[in-house]
């Protein structure tokens, strides 16, 4: 069975039993989300950080302290993502397949929108998605653009990049703009240096992707941004997903379509 | 000088020196906001309540604990609104001209979008605004529609109502829909009983307004909703504005226009 045709529950079972693989292209039509779980004491600052940086951090769902499922995610947040990243004192200390023993009673999980959600719509509109063609993870970059801070939380905007043929740039902007809750239209088009990206071939997260002749790089705000803030702000404890290895939610892409 | 032509600072000075008057039509072109200030311990629940009920509770700005100004409101939140309502233990205990002695060190002020913001656009599109014609406050109603709860906070949706000539209903929907951050398009059109409103002539807040032959009542989500939640949830202490007596902000209506 093609991974595109799996149900969220089927995909989560594969991840729970060990598959560590980026989720671009999985469960077509189902919404994917970034995970960031922080101690209860930081939940207000994080929610306000998300509110102040809505294009990067659209909050799709929030769990109760210590819970490992939410209204829109019926799986187990500790095991059902294909990969996790553990943070201590502002450093990424481990990449893990599950985080059962790390999931503290005071952790509050936030599920943040992901641009994978509109890739099906891009394809349907005739816009090629290069990392789907190559079967790799989307490339992501830490930019020089600062986020609005919230209390102790600050950090740079992270973006994902998709190379789009020049004549389809307006289509890609229009189509993704119809999904404002999952990053919406690009935050930047063209010159990577203008937002502090030195080399497209060396992403900070994910895999490099081929930029073909005539392609223009399009940059979308990325839900890894809270993890960059955890790093930049020296947060003592947090759990995120491994970038590109998303939570597959029990809600459909079309629920976030605004026309 | 017509109140429509006052600057925010000029209007705030009038309110600071005692004028208690609804602000519909004041400072045309400048954004107006609802105030709800709660103890720090409730700020996460309130921010999440707002996030879960975005059409009623669009958060325009949040202050630090104990502060009485914010980035987008350069005045003094304790004195520069034309009227305040004080809540204790889930009851409205006083309407006041200023709240200097009530403003505790741990109070966190939230400024919530207000539908007055798009009234200028309605007028410009040829849609009459009846309460501006009569020089009265907009009528507001507590509905039977429950909000999404957040921790200890729950309560009913509050709406404002504007009667609109039948042939202009689609225009009013379209124009207000361009302002999603200040309640956007109506939540209901037509029959008041469908959302639990018994008698349009007896609003829960504000003044009744004439519904002329051929008018259709349009109902917009209202930023008084957090105050209804304070009442319904038995919150021990909170300060709100007197409904219709808004904070006039240092930001322009057009900053919330989405086209």
UniProtKB/TrEMBL annotation, chains A, B:
Enzyme class, spelled out: lyase
Highest taxon, organism lineage: Bacteria
Gene Ontology molecular function, alphabetical: lyase activity
Matching InterPro entries: D-Glu_cyclase (IPR009906), Putative_hydro-lyase (IPR038021), UPF0317 (IPR016938)
Pfam families noted in UniProt: D-Glu_cyclase (PF07286)
UniProt key word Lyase: yes
UniProt keyword Metal-binding present: no
Documented EC number(s): 4.2.1.-
Keyword list, A-Z: Lyase
PANTHER family xrefs: D-GLUTAMATE CYCLASE, MITOCHONDRIAL
NCBIfam families, alphabetized: PRK05463.1 (NF003969)
HAMAP family: Hydro_lyase
Family the entry assigns: Belongs to the D-glutamate cyclase family.
Protein name: Putative hydro-lyase HD597_006966
Species of origin: Nonomuraea thailandensis
Species classification: Bacteria, Bacillati, Actinomycetota, Actinomycetes, Streptosporangiales
